[in-house]
């Protein structure tokens, strides 16, 4: 079964956001370090173009048959950053999610699902 393109782009975006915090934690960088700011400025500039290329690809796949260079560059950087996190501290990503956070996520998903059913199917 083929993954819908919006799910892969969404997961890539969320992984890039999560990498910001994991890299600061694993590499012991304070938030005010210049490399943290430099990375964020770089991703704002490159990520905007990549998001446009992904949008164009998903909007009209007949015209845009492949992703652009910026989208592939951002994907490669994001995966490389994640591999750095895995290499230097694999225990960080293997920690179990605390039970109260799991409960909050489950409650939120249940509320959204219930609201969707009520709004679009039962009303």
UniProtKB/TrEMBL annotation:
Residue ranges crossing the lipid bilayer per the database entry: 34-51, 71-88, 100-122
Subcellular location, principal: endoplasmic reticulum
Entries under InterPro entries matching the protein: PSS (IPR004277)
Pathway as given in its UniProt record: Phospholipid metabolism; phosphatidylserine biosynthesis
GO biological process, one term: phosphatidylserine biosynthetic process
Function: Catalyzes a base-exchange reaction in which the polar head group of phosphatidylethanolamine (PE) is replaced by L-serine.
Protein family per UniProt: Belongs to the phosphatidyl serine synthase family.
Protein's UniProt name: Phosphatidylserine synthase
